[in-house]
Amino acid sequence: MTSDRPAWAHVNIPRRSPLRFVADCGIQVFAVADAELHKLRRDPWELATRAVQPLLWLVLFGGVMARVRGLAPGGGPYLDFLAPGILAQSVLFVAIFYGISAIWERDLGVLHRYLVSPAPRFTLVIGKALSANIRALSQAIVIYVCAAVMGVAISMRPGNLLIAVLLVALGSGLFSTFSLIIACIVKTRERFMGIGQVLTMPIFFASNAIYPIELMPRWLRAVSTLNPLSYEVDGLRSVMLRGGHSAFGLIRDLTVLLLVSWILIVIAARMYPRMTE
Fold first, then answer.
1. DSSP letters along 121-175, please?
2. Which of 146, 191, 231, 272 is positioned for an S-S bond with 256, CB 3.0–4.6 A?
């Protein structure tokens, strides 16, 4: 009696152990991130040009507004209050336009090569978020140095620096993944640039980056508490400054950023393959 099952059905396909699966995912994530970093190694001036805007905010806007008394909670120096907000702003501005690289990859055929690989889709998304972190961390170094030169009470405690790096990485990953979702929806560079410019300013100004939540109207205060950028800024103020504190609580800041990042990664992993349609 012959079997109707195809020949390949009799082949025993080895299953990967959970540890091997995690290791393979890690290799795939770093492979995608390394491909992105290769672009930076060929054009390192991109990092320098992107650092100009946050420095202008810190030096010009911060220098002028520091003369206005009462802006910072507790009557402290306004530059101390502003510096973490400008760091979070620079992370936002770098990450929110990151999705345009995915559109370029689709047009050049790189995206098709990614999608035919056996890598799980979420590893592609996390890999791109990881590469965005490199840009954000380079911005953080520049802003830390500039803020220290301007007399901001920067905390250099190793524990605080590690948490600051984590907050920058979470914020960059969150907004770069959000940017990837936008790219999956609009699918064209022109539409993406228009939507990115429209979203950047509301996200920035509807946060606690340049003024305290207490000064906002009630409706804007409610919007600010739903804005992930507010939690990144709040966490940075607690670890970036000597004697800094968190209005929401550092654990809450990290939890919100982690939760929103995971939700966006799940959404982006489902939408990413649709860019080729």
1. HHHHHHHHHHHHHHHHHHHHHHHHHHHHHTT--B---HHHHHHHHHHHHHHHHHH
2. 231
- The helix or strand, by DSSP H or E, that contains position 222, with its residue range, turns out to be helix 218-225
**What are the pLDDT digits (tens) for 175-226?**
989 988 888 888 787 888 888 888 888 999 999 998 888 888 999 999 999 9
Measured between alpha carbons, how far is 4 from 117 in angstroms, rounded to an integer? Answer: 31
Q: Report how far residue 155's alpha carbon sits from residue 203's, in angstroms, rounded to the nearest whole number.
A: 27
CB 241 within 8 A of CB 155: yes
Determine the Cα–Cα distance for residues 71 and 117; give it in Å rounded to an integer: 53
- The C-alpha atoms of residue 220 and residue 236 are separated, in whole angstroms, by 21
Q: Judge whether residue 31 has pLDDT over 70.
A: no
The letter for the amino acid at 135 is R
- Its pTM stands at 0.82
